[in-house]
């Protein structure tokens, strides 16, 4: 499975492509950061991010896109920009027919470091180690994008099993409800003695 991990942001948007193999084996295919000038109009900055993501999808052919879920920060302006960038990425992926999954920062940190409270240096160190990179990805947005892709590679099988179990439970509930309803109709038709 090829996963495009995206650490959204208006000023720096991290992109990382990882290929998941059997078990927990993962391999980095590409990493980059899209930078947009803070002085440009927001629409132009979002268009630049969209263009970069479209190019990555065309070049690297991911099976899925994993995006960091926006979380509450003290800087509202930063949250809005991050949410806008994440929305543009999701739109571009959806138009390309790719499924999009959102992971919280703590899910990603826990997946790659074992702790949902790891700092950026720990995430970068573990991404470098997990992917057997010669040098740590810089800036942190690049490492975060790779971490998102790794996180999704490792979480996807469990997420698929959970979805299948939920679908099976819903089907069993539907069948049971139909049997109960049929038994009730049969009981009402029986003559009373």
TrEMBL record:
Chief place of localization: cytoplasm
SUPFAM superfamilies named in the record: Ribonuclease H-like
Any single Pfam family the record assigns to this protein: RuvC
Binding site for Mg(2+) 1: 7, 141
Family matches, as CDD domains: RuvC (cd16962)
Keyword Glycosyltransferase appears in the UniProt entry: no
Gene responsible for this protein: ruvC
Protein's name according to its UniProt entry: Crossover junction endodeoxyribonuclease RuvC
Co-factor: note: Binds 2 Mg(2+) ion per subunit.
Binding site for Mg(2+) 2: 68
Protein function: The RuvA-RuvB-RuvC complex processes Holliday junction (HJ) DNA during genetic recombination and DNA repair. Endonuclease that resolves HJ intermediates. Cleaves cruciform DNA by making single-stranded nicks across the HJ at symmetrical positions within the homologous arms, yielding a 5'-phosphate and a 3'-hydroxyl group; requires a central core of homology in the junction. The consensus cleavage sequence is 5'-(A/T)TT(C/G)-3'. Cleavage occurs on the 3'-side of the TT dinucleotide at the point of strand exchange.
Reactions catalysed according to its record: Endonucleolytic cleavage at a junction such as a reciprocal single-stranded crossover between two homologous DNA duplexes (Holliday junction)
Family the UniProt entry places it in: Belongs to the RuvC family.
NCBIfam families: ruvC (TIGR00228)
Keyword DNA repair: yes
E.C. designation(s): 3.1.21.10
Assembly behavior: Homodimer which binds Holliday junction (HJ) DNA. The HJ becomes 2-fold symmetrical on binding to RuvC with unstacked arms; it has a different conformation from HJ DNA in complex with RuvA. In the full resolvosome a probable DNA-RuvA(4)-RuvB(12)-RuvC(2) complex forms which resolves the HJ.
HAMAP family, per the entry: RuvC
Subcellular location: Cytoplasm
Active-site residues per Swiss-Prot or TrEMBL entry: 7, 68, 141
């Amino acid at each position: 499975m090829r996963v495009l991990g995206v650490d959204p942001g208006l000023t720096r948007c991290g992109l990382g492509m990882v290929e998941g193999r059997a078990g927990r084996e993962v391999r980095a295919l590409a990493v980059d950061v899209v930078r947009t000038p803070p002085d440009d109009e927001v629409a132009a900055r979002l268009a630049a991010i969209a263009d970069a993501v479209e190019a990555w999808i065309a070049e690297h052919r991911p099976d899925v896109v994993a995006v960091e879920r926006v979380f509450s920060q003290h800087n509202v302006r930063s949250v809005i920009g991050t949410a806008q960038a994440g929305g543009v990425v999701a739109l571009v992926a959806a138009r390309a027919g790719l499924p999009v999954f959102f992971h919280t920062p703590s899910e990603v940190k826990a997946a790659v470091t074992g702790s949902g409270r790891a700092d950026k240096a720990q995430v970068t160190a573990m991404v470098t180690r997990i992917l057997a990179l010669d040098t740590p990805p810089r800036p942190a947005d690049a490492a975060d994008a790779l971490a998102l892709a790794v996180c999704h590679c490792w979480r996807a099988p469990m997420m698929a099993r959970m979805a299948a179990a939920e679908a099976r439970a819903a089907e069993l509930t539907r069948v049971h409800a139909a049997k109960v309803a049929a038994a009730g109709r049969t009981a009402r038709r029986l003559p009373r003695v």
